[in-house]
């Protein structure tokens, strides 16, 4: 029996989808040069949605689906809830701590006081931790119908807050970068010192936009619950998932007319649009991989998927660690080891856009090799 067959007790399509998503995260986070990036690998400037903008909401959707599978057996056993919630809180704190460490590293070792004074508190792992915490507890404590109502309520409440509540110091509700209600709240509570360094006046993983981000997780939970149903034949499940995905995507595009699809604001239309597309993608993967049992091509993505958080975290640390080691380049300047390797090997031999992409692809292949070995040795690190 090959390793992929042994994984049949898991939803292989979910591991595959998660792996593709995490590999895409690494691809867009590690260009050789931020000045030379192909358009699809950039975030939308503000309103709109590029393929890169789909990655994070897809991951939160997958978090939701995973919750429905991981905690499904404990849901009806209310006696087990205290222990389950304790584990949920512990995992959330670990994820949040890892995110903070990424924000602090490596400055925390060279200037610890300065590092903490200016650490960015929001972040990708931090948002994942909060979404996981809230979504998992809601899953344990509420029925499926109630979860749907909560999901919709969060989207409506966020839309109302962002479009009707006057912004202090501005005087009117708006959806601009620095003057929207979410940006004001981030600056008020976190202060500019602890926000995204590229903006300092707002944060794409800010406080208020975490509310609709939780809806992305709840969307995944409901899809996972439906996938687990034993009273439906597989063809019916897939047909309904495609239908739900299409409807949600269409509703997102309609809502976009008055509440623009925007990843940085994580608008309600963005939640529906990306949730719908994620449902369609998962349904397609489920049909091909789990229903028709076409699994021979899945291992590269699955090895990423089963150690997703681990590779995301370490892939953020390694380039920074390499750049702590300085070398003198041909111009006599000290540069980090990773930067020197990129500038001396990739830049002279490729066009700027190709060199930047090749550097990112090199990291994908490098981590694939490491994760392949870990998978074959059954090393699965759970955070």
TrEMBL record:
Pfam families recorded: HGSNAT_cat (PF07786)
UniProt source species: Pedobacter flavus
PROSITE patterns xrefs: SSD
TM stretches of this protein: 12-34, 54-72, 93-109, 121-140, 147-167, 206-227, 239-258, 270-289, 301-318, 356-375
Taxonomic placement: Bacteria, Pseudomonadati, Bacteroidota, Sphingobacteriia, Sphingobacteriales
UniProt keyword list: Membrane, Transmembrane, Transmembrane helix
Residues of the SSD domain: 55-164
Protein name: Heparan-alpha-glucosaminide N-acetyltransferase domain-containing protein
Transmembrane helix as UniProt keyword: yes
UniProt KW DNA repair keyword: no
């Amino acid at each position: 029996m090959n390793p992929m067959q042994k994984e049949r007790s898991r939803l292989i399509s979910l591991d595959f989808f998660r792996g593709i998503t995490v590999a895409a995260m690494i691809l867009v986070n590690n260009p050789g040069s931020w000045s030379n990036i192909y358009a699809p690998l950039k975030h939308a400037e503000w309103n709109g949605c590029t393929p890169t903008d789909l990655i994070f909401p897809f991951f939160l959707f997958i978090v939701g689906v995973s919750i429905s599978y991981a905690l499904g057996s404990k849901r009806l056993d209310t006696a087990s809830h205290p222990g389950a919630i304790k584990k949920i809180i512990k995992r959330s704190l670990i994820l949040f701590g890892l995110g903070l460490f990424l924000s602090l590293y490596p400055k925390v070792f060279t200037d610890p006081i300065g590092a903490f004074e200016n650490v960015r508190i929001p972040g990708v792992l931090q948002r994942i931790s909060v979404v996981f915490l809230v979504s998992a507890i809601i899953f344990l404590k509420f029925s499926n119908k109630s979860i749907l109502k909560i999901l919709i309520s969060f989207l409506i409440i966020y839309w109302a807050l962002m479009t009707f509540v006057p912004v202090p110091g501005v005087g009117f509700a708006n959806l601009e970068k620095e003057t929207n209600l979410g940006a004001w709240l981030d600056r008020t509570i976190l202060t500019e010192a602890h926000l995204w360094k590229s903006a300092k006046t707002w944060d794409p993983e800010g406080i208020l936009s975490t509310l609709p981000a939780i809806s992305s997780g709840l969307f995944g939970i409901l899809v996972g619950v439906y996938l687990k149903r034993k009273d439906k034949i597989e063809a019916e499940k897939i047909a309904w998932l495609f239908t739900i995905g299409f409807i949600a995507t269409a509703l997102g595009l309609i809502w976009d007319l008055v509440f623009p699809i925007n990843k940085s604001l994580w608008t309600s239309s963005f939640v529906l649009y990306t949730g719908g597309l994620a449902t369609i993608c998962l349904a397609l993967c489920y049909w091909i991989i789990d229903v028709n049992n076409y699994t021979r091509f899945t291992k590269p993505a699955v090895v990423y998927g089963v150690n997703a958080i681990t590779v995301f975290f370490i892939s953020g640390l390694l380039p920074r660690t390499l750049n702590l080691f300085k070398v003198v380049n041909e111009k006599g300047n000290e540069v980090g080891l990773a930067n020197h390797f990129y500038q001396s090997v990739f830049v002279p031999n490729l066009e700027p856009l190709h060199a930047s992409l090749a550097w990112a692809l090199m990291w994908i292949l490098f981590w694939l090799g490491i994760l392949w070995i870990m998978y074959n040795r059954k090393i699965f690190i759970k955070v």
